[in-house]
Amino acid sequence: MGLLGGGVIGAGWAARFVLNGSDVRLFDPSAEASARAARVLDDARTAFQQLTLAPLPEEGELRIVDSLEEAVAGVELVQESAPERIELKRGLLAEGDRAAPPDALICSSTSGLRPSELQAEMERPERFCVAHPFNPVYLLPLVELCAGVRTAPETVERAGAVFRSVGMQPLVVRSEIDGFVADRLLEALWREALWLVSDGAATVEEVDDAIRYGAGLRWAFMGTFLTYRIAGGEEGMRHFIRQFGPALEWPWTHLTDVPELTDELVERIAEQSDAQADGRSPRELEQLRDRVLVRLLQALRAEETAAGATLAAWERELLGAAAPTSVRHIPPEWVDYNGHVHESRYLELFADATDALLGGLGVDAGYLEDGGSFFTVETHLSHLRQLEAGDRVRVTTQVLDSDEKRLHLFHVLLRDGEADPLATAEQMLLHVDTTSGRAAPVREPVREKVAELTQQHGSLPRPERAGRSVGVS
């Protein structure tokens, strides 16, 4: 990947791509670009370790380069994230277009400039589209895709596939408009927030409280229209609009009127904002933001809704691509009140190893959608040595036996570089037709792959602890 611009957005792009296994070359003439990118990558790495238990691919390499030509040479995607000045962006995109391979995608992170204006000087404008992300890019999955008048339809499709592969949720903007979709909504909210402070009706903290304790919690998974549909009761949106539609004519808002940003108003906002920060530095606030976002995304993942569904889909891809022996890092959050890693975490490691094995056997999203799945019906854990925070561990998996409906597995948890097991797990899986909820024969082509792997593993020594139960003397 070639990145042009290493500010907050460019550095965020670098972190998302690097942590998804892509090599990245970043060009930014700023002397701070290298340190900023390293800091953002470190924060993103910490967030990802908390966000998902799925094994991430081996990190790509991040290189800060001295020229645009070096950044885009031989890449599959050029992502421009320069300041919002149209002449600057247009020039960078034209240069990138001339220097990049003919089949490379070229995208801009612009938050509101029209793609037709940005692609005006490009020799190959058909391969360009806007790909507008949100800060922090490495955690927030939304990316707005918008084509210009000279953009080829397949360009947006290709871009969507690239961003989905790194855990993002593309939103294709149906027509070329200033500000696209999300920023149009945010601008309306920002205008009203400024008026409330300007009129003395609320402080900046009170405005933020109105969002974070109220509608913001709903918006995280329901958005605007679904929220209002529920407010309409059994009759839905029609009833809501009939009941509350007349309120749109009331003079509650300033609509497109903008308060004058006088020195007095700017100073009032700045002072109130400093007080709201309560002595915390921007870096501390960013880290707080990331921790909260991780937990919110995990909560949404548990329901497979909104951004949580995107996270779950990305994790399934990671598990499907992972080798059963992928190395994992044990985070400090796994240590419980007695200083030990909780036993449930061992089960998670073994369950993820099972998922990785099944993914390699062809139990993918398509297989699951067709109604085939393996359910774990029995697990026996043996804890042999203490697992500690900071350990790098891997799980090896052996197929002990299988038949048309069952898969018998034995896992061994090892500290990386050591041969003595930390723990073992024996599992029996049953193949199920999820439509009927009953056990059913494994389907092709998974059946053939299971039989082949069972035969291969049949020549391995049987694990000493296989078949054991709880010992009672």
Task: Walk me through the structure.
The protein is 44% helix and 18% strand. With 473 residues, the chain is α/β, with parallel strands linked by helices. It folds into three domains: 2-180, 3-Layer(aba) Sandwich (Rossmann fold), CATH 3.40.50; 183-279, N-(1-d-carboxylethyl)-l-norvaline Dehydrogenase, domain 2, CATH 1.10.1040.10; 323-457, Thiol Ester Dehydrase, Chain A (Roll), CATH 3.10.129.10. Helix 13 crosses helix 14. It starts with a strand and ends in a 16-residue tail after the last helix. 32% of the residues are buried. The model has no long low-confidence stretch (mean pLDDT 92).
Summarize the entry for a quick read.
The chain is 44% helix and 18% strand.
Element layout with pairings:
Layout: E1 2-4, H1 8-19, E2 24-27, H2 33-51, E3 62-65, H3 68-72, E4 77-80, H4 86-99, E5 105-108, H5 115-118, E6 128-132, E7 142-147, H6 153-165, E8 169-172, H7 182-198, H8 204-222, H9 225-231, H10 236-244, H11 263-277, H12 282-303, H13 307-321, E9 328-329, H14 343-360, H15 365-369, E10 372-383, E11 392-402, E12 406-415, E13 421-433, E14 438-439, H16 446-457
Parallel strand pairs: 1-2, 1-4, 2-3, 4-5, 5-6, 7-8
Antiparallel strand pairs: 6-7, 9-11, 10-13, 11-12, 12-13, 13-14
Helix pairs in contact: 1-2, 2-12, 9-10, 12-13, 13-14
